[in-house]
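pasting for the record
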Amino acid sequence: MGRKERRAKERQERKESIRMTPDRIYELKQKTANEAVRRVQEIEKGKEKQRAETTLDMLLLFGMTYLHEQKGWGKQRLENYYDGCMKLLKEFEAGEHMIKSLRDKLVEETKINLVEVKE
């Protein structure tokens, strides 16, 4: 096969590879739809994480504000409280604690029974 024939064959293959056949159109639609779904899921995951972080910030802020204003806790005690909460959170994320075990321990040691959280 000479150069002329080889180049003609290459041009033909390029044309066929970009030709919009029904199968190619379907394939492109599926690829685009899958990419859109993936992006939406990433956005939703980011929103969930942001909501969880905001909720945690609010709970810490409420607790620390109460302890400071009503109980007179100062900087050192509040920092210890915050550090303790973060330590428990990290242990929880590592699977070292479960909500139920923490709740049971609180009830056993203090007789304070928080509303049960569904797991």
